[in-house]
Amino acid sequence: MSIDSGERLPDLPTHVSPPGTRRRVARFLARHPRLRLGFSLGPPLTWLLVIYIGALVALLLTSLFRLVDDPTGLLTRIDTTLTFENYQRLLDTPAYRVVMQRTILAAFSVTVIDGLIALPFAFYMAKVASPWAKRGLVVAVTMPLWAGYLVKGYAWRAILDPGGGVLKGVFGSSPGFGSTAAIIVLCYPWFPYMVIPLYAGLERLPNSLLEASTDLGASAGRTFRSVVMPQLLPALAAGSIFTFSLTLGDFYMNQIVGGTNEYIGNVIYRNFSANLPFSAAYAMVPVLIMIVYLLAIRRTGALEEL
Amino acid sequence: MFLSRRARIALRCFAALVLGVLYFPLVYVARLSLNKAPSYAWPPSGFTLRWWDAVIRSEGPRSALLHSVQTALWATAIALVLGTLAAFALSRHKFFGRGSVGLVLVLPIALPGIVTGVALLSAFQRVGIALSVNTLIVAHATFCVVVVYNNVGARLRRMSGSLEEASADLGADGLQTFRYVTFPLMRTALLAGGLLAFALSFDEIVVTTFTVGGGYKTLPIWFAENFARPNAIPVVNVVATFVVLASIIPVYVAQRLIDRPIEGVGAAAA
Fold this sequence. Notes:
The complex is a heterodimer of chains A (306) and B (270).
Chain A: H1 21-31, H2 33-63, E1 66-69, E2 76-79, H3 85-92, H4 94-128, H5 131-146, H6 149-160, H7 166-171, H8 179-204, H9 207-215, H10 220-248, H11 252-257, H12 264-271, H13 276-298
Antiparallel strand pairs in A: 1-2
Helix pairs in contact in A: 2-13, 4-8, 4-10, 5-8, 6-8, 8-10, 9-10, 10-13, 12-13
Chain B: H1 5-32, H2 50-57, H3 59-92, H4 98-110, H5 113-127, H6 133-158, H7 162-169, H8 174-203, H9 206-211, H10 219-226, H11 233-246, H12 248-259, H13 265-269
Helix pairs in contact in B: 1-11, 2-11, 3-6, 3-8, 3-10, 4-6, 6-8, 7-8, 8-12
């Protein structure tokens, strides 16, 4: 049995491989799909379970440890008896509760603002722009994703600086550095994460559906509410995972433009080298919030859109 | 279509405005890197290549760049192997707990970077591993696996298994089928996933902050240390512009990959 090795496919082997160890192994594997599964699933699953899930378990454990003074009284060490002390401190200290509320509010605001801007933008990309413009827009929207995260924060610092930034120079006023600035600036790097799933979702939505809605007498607004939105919900949820989660964990952007208003991330960052157990406990807050968030939106089918 | 002319014009203006806001900060930084005055005060005045010259001559940014590239290459290599294996396992087999494995795979990007960072730091401390460039690479590889898995997985799901069956019917063994049929079909997905993984690692700062040790400085770390120093403003502008300009390369390559469909056998399947 031979395959003609013509010009089109010069690389194809012209004969079946000779019987040998390699072929026996190949045949054995072909007959044992479970073994094949083991070989392909084993390494990545081991890596993720040992390193990532293991790390999350270590995080949980560490959050239950506490910092105690050394017998000398000069140094601190980590005491590994389990205690809820760190969590107690988080709940009892009003300042930490304020920081939590501020962070969640920021994550929520960024998600809503990005969603409101991205919806019409993605709609324009998918349904109004010419095919040529559409390709250009896809590139234009994804390119800023690659430009450094800190670079973007820094650029916005130069724009928002109340002592001579662009806004001050051109419009005569700037929100300055603070909570508002942090939310505005965080909307910027996460915007493409919201646009891309929405665009993909709208591309899948057939135009004929929109036309049918119009033919049946629906206004543009009604078509949008009753036809577009229900179909777009999984994409919107997928985009929101990114904007929400990324804001929830941010601390660099807030450090660059947020003034003195700390986020959860800033508190974790400020404490991690001196008091890791406390930082670990605070880091469990975004974990819990994200688990609730993921479970809540799993029904929309958003996880398949990531 | 169902939109009035006026609505279309309004949408177009809105899109143009959004693009303007999206690009102004990047263009502005590039302009600042050529600014005569060593500040970012508006309006920029004059042009000079002095700062570019200074950066090219200085050791700090250059070694930081090399470190970033080194870390990203290692993380990408590990992610390519693990991500591809995971994609094969999940798209070619049905097994108990497949959904949970899928969830574990996306968790490192669904949870905020700071959680990943503090969690890995806690783990390294528990086990007694000192932070170094190796712990950094392990951390980066962990969240890079996801993007390779997503890209390759999507391609495998689109690829029908009949091509592989045909190959087997013609007498090729598993390895030959992989080499001559499967691999050529998924090559662009591997490249796209690898590119994304590289970019993700290259720009990462949050997880990096918690998992690097031994005085190893990547470009984002260099940036974080310098952006707030008034004296460093012109140099920071140059490095920032460099990062923005360098980002055009992966975008260009990714575009080329998407634009040109795979030739030959692949064209039928893709």
